[in-house]
Amino acid sequence: MQSAQLEAVADWMARHVAGFQGPLRATKFEVGQSNPTFRLDSPSGTYVLRRKPPGVLLKSAHAVDREYRVQKALAGSAVPVARMHALCEDEAVTGSMFYIMDHVEGRSFVDPSMPEETPQTRAAIIAEMARVLAAIHDVDLDATGLTDFGPPGSYYERQFARWVKQYRASETDPIKDMEALIDWLGANMPADDGQRTLVHGDYRIDNMLFAPGGTGCRAVLDWELSTLGHPYADLAGVIMQWQLPPGSEGRGLAGIDRAGAGLPSDSDFVAQYCALRGLPGIDNFGYYVAFAFFRMAAILQGVKKRALDGNAANPEKGLKLGGFVPRFAELGLEARHSHG
């Protein structure tokens, strides 16, 4: 962040953030492809600034105002979130909308196999993932003022139309498996079962901060894709992630001896979640996992397009991530029957 921008942010915070004292020192977080995020150190404490990226953006993407609203609404709930301070909608300050929140001290796990942990702590951390996910889906929409946080109607029909449109808007080359997956998802849409909850939209272990030295979740981060919708979308997103290769790139659990590592099987994690929410089980779960792969492929295609257009936070990484789109489409086709 340029010094003039940083001074403008400090001036703005002095007017809008209670107790703030400058000057500011900014450090950019390299993680994340979507909304540029900075750690702000000051005499009054440590904050985090998240802003929209510059340039021409897809409609409804990078909704930092929605991120701010949902996290502010969840303060004091069973869902751990960082404390929100203020939202700046005046683009003249930095060139794009941003918000300020507390910096939460905690540890994050890029790799869900958590190689440094013991089987006992791995099991406890994944159980905490299930607990927090169930808590998100059990949020009282009336009490939190979030009843209008998403449009009415069938979530999957809405999401399917949205992500096909987003994918087409950022398409660079035809991908045969992506077309087959889109066709299958459209033809096999499940009937709307009436479940309508808060959904995170990108729920995975690397979007969570855990207590230093402990297994409790201190904050769920990256609410950009949150809305009101179907809870199985978040659950299937977790299972989708675990089908990928382990390590800092794939961030999955493919090929790992889960029982020996203290990690649950896919079906065990789904059963944990269902028990927490009082559900008997989930029919046709393969559809939801296949959809999760399709949606992530569409997101990665958007990342690739932003990198090609020069609007990505990290262009080199953006192009690399975009290269995974065909593989996600292939895994989506495989998932149709493997998780039912």
Describe the structure using short key phrases.
alpha+beta; Phosphorylase Kinase, domain 1; Aminoglycoside 3'-phosphotransferase, Chain: A, domain 2; 2 domains; five-stranded antiparallel beta sheet; two-stranded antiparallel ribbon; 12 helices
Word description of this protein:
With 340 residues, the protein is α+β, with helices and mostly antiparallel strands. The chain has two domains: 3-102, Phosphorylase Kinase, domain 1 (2-Layer Sandwich); 119-338, Aminoglycoside phosphotransferase (APH), C-terminal lobe (Aminoglycoside 3'-phosphotransferase, Chain: A, domain 2, Alpha-Beta Complex). The protein contains twelve helices and nine strands. The strands form three sheets. It has a five-stranded antiparallel sheet with strand order 1-2-3-5-4, sandwiched between helices. A two-stranded antiparallel sheet has the order 6-9. Helix 10 crosses helix 11. The relative contact order is 0.14.
How much helix, percentage-wise, in residues? 40-55%
Radius of gyration: 20 Å
CA distance, first residue to last residue: 47 Å
Shape descriptor reads: globular
Q: Roughly what is the average pLDDT, rounded to an integer? A: 92
The SS-based structural class is alpha+beta
Strand order of the largest sheet: 1-2-3-5-4
Say what oligomer this is.
Answer: single chain
Percent strand: 5-15%
> How many domains make up the coordinates?
2
CATH fold label of the largest domain: Aminoglycoside 3'-phosphotransferase, Chain: A, domain 2
Tally of helical runs: 12
Protein name: Phosphotransferase family protein
Domain Aminoglycoside phosphotransferase: 27-248
InterPro entries: ACAD10-like, ACAD10_11_N, Aminoglycoside_PTrfase, Kinase-like_dom_sf
